[in-house]
Automatic annotation (TrEMBL):
<feature type="compositionally biased region" description="Polar residues">
    <location>
        <begin position="394"/>
        <end position="405"/>
    </location>
</feature>
<feature type="region of interest" description="Disordered">
    <location>
        <begin position="394"/>
        <end position="418"/>
    </location>
</feature>
<feature type="coiled-coil region">
    <location>
        <begin position="40"/>
        <end position="67"/>
    </location>
</feature>
<keyword id="KW-0175">Coiled coil</keyword>
<protein>
    <submittedName>
        <fullName>Uncharacterized protein</fullName>
    </submittedName>
</protein>
<feature type="compositionally biased region" description="Basic residues">
    <location>
        <begin position="406"/>
        <end position="418"/>
    </location>
</feature>
<keyword id="KW-0732">Signal</keyword>
<feature type="signal peptide">
    <location>
        <begin position="1"/>
        <end position="23"/>
    </location>
</feature>
<feature type="coiled-coil region">
    <location>
        <begin position="104"/>
        <end position="194"/>
    </location>
</feature>
């Protein structure tokens, strides 16, 4: 049917094309003949209208041909779709036939599987029943535990309430103690202020013993010395101490090899020479000591009567000065005794703090003094170490062979004692 339709359309299109071409040729010949013969304007207008109609017909024919082509394409596509659907229908019929053949066996297999599944489900139901029973038992046990836990929570809440009450009471006590401490601190500050005021009064009284101009001069000198010490003396002393420590380390490092050389080489030779000098100079020293003792005894016997006379003269003047100054001293002591007792009574509660501060100051001063004295005594210590190593009695190996010298020295001592 589709092929016949296509053939009829093609025939119609061919006939239209042939007729349009022949009509154009006839019209053009007639138009030329008429133009040639008549040459009027009406004929020209008609000719142009005919040409316009011809062009419109040609365009209409072209549109029809295009529509016919598009319809042919659609027809071809639909025929392809029809063929595909026909093929699918044939395959479905074949599958249906095969399924109908295999349907009985599949149904039997599905029934067997359904029976097995039903048995498994029954077993699962039994297991679920057992699990539900166990869960019910566990639920009862949990409920009992929950009740016990609630009881414990109630007990703990009561304990917490009691603890909160005790904590609140302790907080109140702490606040009271803090207030008491604040009051005590205020009293201590007042007492310290009073003590400072009394100390100032005492210092003023003590400075009143001196003349006013001298006390002012002494206080100004003390303040000037303190400021100069804090500004210049203290940092300079610290720098000197640090430099002295560095120099000490450098001297120790520099002196170590020299000290070892002195110990190994010079000390034994010096010991030998010293032993020789000592053995030679000992009789002269003994004779010098005997002569010095004789001169001392003679001078003592000569000077002792003159010293006794001078002591007697001075003692007489001392007794007269003592008699003259004793009443004045007693008056001053009797006048100052009540003031001293008042000062002692006022300062007695603060003596401990003063003594503690004085002890710390003494410790700091002694430590600083020890450091300074150690730095100053460093060269003396080094010389003392060298001398001690030179004249120590431990290393006397080269003198052990000199038995004759020892015996000679003992003989000389024995002779001197005789």
């Amino acid at each position: 049917m589709a092929a016949l339709r296509l053939f009829m359309l093609l025939c119609v299109v061919f006939v239209l094309i042939v007729s349009s071409v022949s009509g154009e040729s006839d019209a053009s010949s007639t138009v030329d003949h008429v133009v040639g013969s008549d040459g009027s304007d009406d004929v020209k207008i008609q000719v142009e209208q005919l040409k316009a109609k011809i062009h419109s017909l040609e365009s209409h024919v072209d549109l029809k041909t295009q529509e016919a082509k598009s319809k042919d394409d659609k027809i071809l596509e639909k025929e392809k779709i029809i063929k595909e659907k026909a093929d699918t229908i044939a395959s479905l019929h074949s599958e249906i036939a095969s399924v109908q053949k295999k349907g009985n066996s599949v149904v039997e297999e599905q029934l067997a599987k359904a029976h097995a599944r039903a048995a498994e489900l029954e077993k699962q139901v039994e297991n679920l029943k057992k699990e539900t029973e166990l869960r019910a038992r566990e639920k009862g046990a949990l409920e009992s535990r929950v009740s016990e836990a609630e009881n414990k929570v109630r007990e703990i809440s009561s304990k917490l309430k009691s603890l909160k009450k005790s904590i609140d009471e302790n907080k109140v006590k702490i606040k009271k103690t803090e207030r008491a401490l604040q009051v005590a601190e205020e009293e201590l500050m007042k007492t310290k202020f009073e003590a400072n005021a009394k100390i100032k009064e005492l210092t003023e009284v003590h400075s009143a013993w001196l003349p006013h101009w001298l006390a002012a001069h002494v206080s100004s000198c003390q303040s000037y010395v303190e400021t100069q010490w804090n500004m210049h003396g203290k940092p300079a002393a610290q720098l000197v101490i640090e430099k002295a420590k560095v120099k000490k380390e450098q001297v120790e490092k520099w002196a170590e090899p020299h000290v070892e050389i002195v110990k190994t080489k010079w000390i034994p030779s010096v010991k030998d020479q010293w032993f020789v000098i000592k053995s030679k100079a000992e009789p002269h020293v003994q004779s010098f000591t005997t002569k010095f003792i004789e001169v001392y005894e003679t001078s003592k016997t000569a000077v002792s009567p003159h010293a006794i006379k001078a002591q007697e003269v001075v003692n007489s003047y001392y007794q007269e000065a003592k008699k003259f100054s004793k009443p004045h001293i007693d008056q001053v002591a009797s006048a100052a005794k009540p003031h001293v007792d008042k000062v002692h009574g006022a300062l007695e509660p603060y003596l401990k703090e003063v003594l503690h501060a004085y002890g710390k100051f003494v410790e700091y001063a002694t430590a600083y003094h020890h450091e300074a004295s150690a730095l100053l005594a460093l060269p003396v210590i080094i010389l003392f170490k060298i001398c001690s190593t030179m004249f120590s009695k431990k290393q006397q190996k080269p003198n052990r062979t000199g038995n004759t010298n020892h015996s000679r020295r003992k003989a000389k001592r024995g002779h001197a004692e005789k």
